[in-house]
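Narrative of accomplishments. A recurring question from our advisory board has been how the design workflow behaves on a single, concrete structure rather than in aggregate. To address it, we present the structure tokens for one chain from the evaluation set, followed by the sequence designed for it. No filtering or post-editing was applied between the two.
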């Protein structure tokens, strides 16, 4: 060992653990103790495997076949997350474009949100977005302008996806090196919903995979992952630290059944308007409760109607609140309702 090498080793040993970086190009296989499977509560059909049919680097990547519905979810990842600033770089290849339905492909248990609550990255309205499981807030908010401030995830080839969770709670996101304005908290006019609470994430893991809440399925490949306390960029190299033999098993289990119990139906009728509010509570094993509220309005007067995908409600909305024939006004959050097919 040269004097320089000794000096560098000494510096490395003195670095706080918060600067540690976990990386992998999966050319040494899939070390399932370094990258364990994560499928909280249930797993019905999702599978993960080391795959040599496509890769960003070398021959190997990790393939995630995500099934539909919450229990079709499956992830792999690590709890080796730096304290303070967290930067994640991953090369990701999706098979199918993001739809209007809500999905996640990165999920992070977040101690600041409570037990089993996650900061998620995924899609809705066909664009990339952040979602906070505790209160379902999105970044950007899903108004037409907010939606336009983010971007779709290209499919069929590997994309360089990077994000930064600041120690002050700020978020930054890049796709192929380009900042995504809607996925950045600074100077973002569509971040009001996100910043309405003083939110400073304290993530305890980073997991890559697939989870859908409306039945969407997809196949993703992940390669050249780097998680650390500084940005490596898209050209940053990855050093494989995996030394274990290849693991090529894929896991598919069916363990939990899912029951849906309608709980409340309430109707209010007035002279020219009928409002039906249905609350449906879906309970899955020990998982948290998801409540979906759908409001349907029928009006006989000559009220302006909104077209498909248009906004039809939400805090501060003064435009049409009635959807064109065949569409329902669905509340996506307190700030945005949208005309969608039923
Ligand atoms: Ca690789």
């Amino acid at each position: 060992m040269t004097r320089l090498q000794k000096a560098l080793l000494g510096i490395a040993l003195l670095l706080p653990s918060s600067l540690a970086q976990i990386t992998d190009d999966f050319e040494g296989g899939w070390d399932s103790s370094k990258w364990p499977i994560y499928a909280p509560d249930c797993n019905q059909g999702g599978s993960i495997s080391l795959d040599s049919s496509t890769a960003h680097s070398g021959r190997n990547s990790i393939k995630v076949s995500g099934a539909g519905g919450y229990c079709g979810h499956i992830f792999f990842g690590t709890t080796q997350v730096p304290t303070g600033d967290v930067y994640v770089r991953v090369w990701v290849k999706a098979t199918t474009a993001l739809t209007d339905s809500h999905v996640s492909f990165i999920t992070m248990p977040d101690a600041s949100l409570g037990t089993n609550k996650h900061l998620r990255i995924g899609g809705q309205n066909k664009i990339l977005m952040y979602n906070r499981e505790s209160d379902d807030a999105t970044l950007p908010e899903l108004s037409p302008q907010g939606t336009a401030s983010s971007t779709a995830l290209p499919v069929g080839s590997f994309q360089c996806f990077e994000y930064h969770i600041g120690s002050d709670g700020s978020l930054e996101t890049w796709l192929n090196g380009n900042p995504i304005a809607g996925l950045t908290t600074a100077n973002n006019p569509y971040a009001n919903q996100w910043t309405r609470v003083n939110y400073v994430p304290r993530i305890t893991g980073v997991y890559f995979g697939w989870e859908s809440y409306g039945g969407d399925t997809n196949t993703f490949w992940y390669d050249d992952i780097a998680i650390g306390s500084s940005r490596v960029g898209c050209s940053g190299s990855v050093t494989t630290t995996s030394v274990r033999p290849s693991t090529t098993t894929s896991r598919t289990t069916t363990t939990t059944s899912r029951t849906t119990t309608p709980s409340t139906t309430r109707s209010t009728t007035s002279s020219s308007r009928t409002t039906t509010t249905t609350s449906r509570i879906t309970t899955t094993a020990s998982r948290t409760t998801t409540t979906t509220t759908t409001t349907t309005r029928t009006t006989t007067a000559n009220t302006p109607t909104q077209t498909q995908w248009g906004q039809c409600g939400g805090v501060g909305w003064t435009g049409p609140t009635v959807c064109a024939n065949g569409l329902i006004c669905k509340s996506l959050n307190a700030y945005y309702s949208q005309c969608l097919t039923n």
